[in-house]
Amino acid sequence: MTLEHFLPADDIRTLFSTSMSRMYQQEVPQYGTLMQLVAEINEQTLASEPSLQQQLDSNGELERLSLERHGAIRVGTAAELSTLRRVFAIMGMHPVSYYDLSEAGVPVHSTAFRPVDDASLRRNPFRIFTSLLRLELIEEDDLRARAAEILSQRNIFTDRALQLIAQAEVQGGLTAKQAHEFVAEVLETFRWHQHATVDIATYHTLQDAHRLIADVVCFRGPHINHLTPRTLDIDTVQLRMPTVNINPKAVIEGPPRRRCPILLRQTSFTALEEEIHFAGEQADSHTARFGEIEQRGMALTPKGRALYDELLTRSRQAPAQTDNETHQRLLTSAFADFPDDELSLRTQELGYFRYNLTEAGRQQAKLGGAPGELETLIKAGLVQATPITYEDFLPVSAAGIFQSNLGGGGHQAYAQNANQAAFEQALGCPVIDEFTLYAKLQDDSAQQVLQALVTGINPI
Ligand code: OOG
Ligand code: NI
């Protein structure tokens, strides 16, 4: 079998993300309503901000706007996580970054499976935020053993999915026909199951230890717990959610609204209460599934990220706010020291930028021989710098989303407990460092424009 018979991994990912979206809209009708609201507000925003439209267009993001989504799942064992790694690799999604959420009282650690190269991100940036339950953080020995025992008895993948994974690895890819079957089989893993695998007493015991433990342990598989469209104006969507009968969480997570958006802002609607049936015919309700939206800004360098973390920590010393307006006001004042113009962000090396030739630069490239200093070329109007979009997640924000959906408030704080080595061992490989990816994108684009201008070949 030759390579050209295989469906590209990017196309398998698109098949997967559109199938997941269709399934989730059927399972959670409010998600469809949220998508409509987001699309409407995106359209209005683009119409009123031509410069934003232009920036998205030049980054190749305009056509992917409606594709832009992430989802999240939670798994219970190392074996489940490592098989998921193999599943996602077939779709061109690789584990990027390590997130420790135990610090925020959520007994999991996580990574995001996502496309890593520029071309794949442009095709479809779909990501899955994937969390592994940390049974070792359950203090009670009996309970920990019981949870492990229940998890050891489930198989979250269909037999056919496992066969196709192995086949893809041996062949080096999947044909279109195999890919369609693979996506259909893998979808079964993320489907909602109304029937719990345990009796109601076990469910309540695990629920009392931590609601998240019950959610991971008591079901046949890791139901997709949300999908997330990308909004260009999260403040407006947050305000308008109640007009379509959606109840948003109290505050928008992440940085404040700024002229130059950074990182990621997120909000969600609170989880649905859904009836589940237990062994022994009893029923109760479970809250697991919700809807979320994200607004993405510029990726920050380690220096920019350290400043973000410092200002965020400072802002969180004040008591938590229950209304978004006050929260945003306090956040804005805490972030007053974070430069908010592209020139400062770039020259102070706080954010990552992509370099392109301007029209004048393209003309110059035909001649070659331009001076080789990037700053000089920018000042001369031959090169322009546009922010690189952040493609990852933020642990404090993620913890806020988890907590708002687990409800109940009473989460215990685990002592700071990051254990990336244990996570990577469960995963079966190291996670990729996000900063390395952004730095490479920036450096490659700089190299390309310099080469085009200085040597006059291959103008881009
Ligand atoms: C994941 C919560 C985190 C995000 O976008 O930061 C998350 C979960 O609830 O499983 O989705
Ligand atoms: Ni999310």
From TrEMBL:
It is an enzyme of class 1 (oxidoreductase). This is 2-oxoadipate dioxygenase/decarboxylase. It comes from the Bacteria. Its cofactor is Fe(2+). It comes from Oceanisphaera marina. Its EC number is 1.13.11.93. The keyword Iron applies. PANTHER family: 2-OXOADIPATE DIOXYGENASE_DECARBOXYLASE, PTHR39479. InterPro entries: HGLS (IPR009770), YdcJ_bac-like (IPR047869). Belongs to the 2-oxoadipate dioxygenase/decarboxylase family.
